[in-house]
Amino acid sequence: xxxxxxxxxxxxxxxxxxxxxxxxxxxxxxxxxxxxxxxxxxxxxxxxxxxxxxxxxxxxxxxxxxxxxxxxxxxxxxxxxxxxxxxxxxxxxxxxxxxxxxxxxxxxxxxxxxxxxxxxxxxxxxxxx
Length: 129
Description:
By secondary structure, this protein is mostly beta strands. It has one helix spanning 104-117; strands spanning 2-4, 9-11, 14-15, 20-22, 25-27, 30-39, 44-46, 49-56, 59-61, 64-72, 77-79, 82-83, 86-89, 94-96.
């Protein structure tokens, strides 16, 4: 399990093979196909999340693509499309978007294709991408 502390801000795509807990902010996609992603209560994710299972306590703006389950807990704010075979929405959560479980396979194929066709981003002076 890997945790991004609340003081951490990530800009760009984040890939991991381990379970991931976000306590800070991610401005970009998160790819954790074989693991779980937890968006903690004070965390913000502005981008798509692809994982085996996704649990949101905080804020997520983007597609949530899970091969097993998306679980949106009380007080979470989710804006975007959910593509998963199972979807749990707490009545105290705020959800604006649509749920389309029938599109899961297509969304995963598109995401995998985009990952293959994107080359690694060049590192610019100063160590930034």
